[in-house]
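Q: Can I borrow your eye for a moment on a structure tokenisation matter? Would you mind producing a protein record, from residues through to fold? Write it directly below this note and I will take it from there.
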Amino acid sequence: MPRTRISADPTEHDAALELARRVGERIRVARRRAGLTQSQLAGERYTKAYISALETGITRPSMVALNYIASQLGLPASHFLGEAHPTWSRLEVDMRLAAGDWAGAAEGYRSLMETGLGDVARAEALRGLAEAEARQDRGREAIAAAAEATRIFAGLGRTVDAALSRYWLAYGTYLTDNESDARSQLQGLLAQVRSGLQVEPDFEMRLLTALAAVESRVGEHDRSLAYLEEARGMADDLDDRRRANFLFNLAISYRETGDVEAAIRVGQQGLALYRAAGAPFESATIENDLAMAYLALGNLERATELAAEAHEQFETVGDDRFLAAVLDTEAQIALAGGLHDRAMALTARSNQLARDTGNRLVETLSLITAARVLRARGDREEAERRYAAAAELARAGSGQGRLRDLLGEWADLRAERGDYQGAYELTSEAVKVN
């Protein structure tokens, strides 16, 4: 999801404008010394108008943009930020958030709050912290920060700011596997926006995308796709990174509703945008989903290639939470290729990493994959134990739609074993799942 824009108090705003003006002046001087026009400095990534806005101080650069400009001019980014203004620490933290340095931004916001901020500045820092924590999949921490920010903004009558904070509260709630409350919070925000609350230009689209993610998580794939189709026309004006994120979510929904060709087409578009935006982590997430789409088509070679690329990226950055998901994908590919020993080893590692990182969704999925491998091997008794463990997790909240499908598979296994009463009980439970 795109980041939240953070406003400043009047005095901070003036200081930020002054800093933007000084940075812009240094960019202009360096560009002229290098003999470049604004268009040449912009290159293929930005526009002449954007460079002009930076140089005049109308717009402040993100760290991503500043690093790009610095590389174009053969200078370190610090050249443009020297002699930091006393308020630079706040601006620097905001720019870290914009650049995707979630851990650094979280640390920065915590440091700022230790300095004794006023109510508004503290609430803004808390909202930034909530986003940074949510981006790192730290749901409980995101909830704590967003809830306090929401309370402060609501008390000050700042409805728009409170709505933005509640968005990250819903995100954190979703990360803690409380899909019901996350859905309720997001639907409440959507109702406010449709009743006339003006938040940000893309806020309604973000809410629809987030609701799609919730519905996808609980297995309501048709509802998920409906939300995304509704949002599709709103995505045309997004920047490359945010449009790629939208396309990624759309590709997942297409795949989960069975339209694999559409999933691959849209997923490839999103992957190209992520790569152009220099977003290797996000590229890896969409590579993993594309691997699943190619697996559904029976193209094991392409599925293997994409999963391997995603695996390498997550292993390089040391992100075990996402690596657990890729390992399960690789296990499913191995199972499809008849490599049962490899599939079993991969799903065991996936399950361990999922448990270590608190990724209950992948923990459930890896148990289901293991059950399928054991079933393919003919070890129905052990397969049943894995289905039972997966069902226990699913019943605890990892998705009702997923629970229905799981119970159906488990019922089929029991029928294969001649346990028709047990199969009937599971089928009856599946019918009752909402």
User: Anything to note?
Assistant: Residues 218 and 399 are 4 Å apart (CA to CA). DSSP finds 23 helices and no strands in the chain. Confidence is low (pLDDT under 50) at residues 1-13, 83-88.
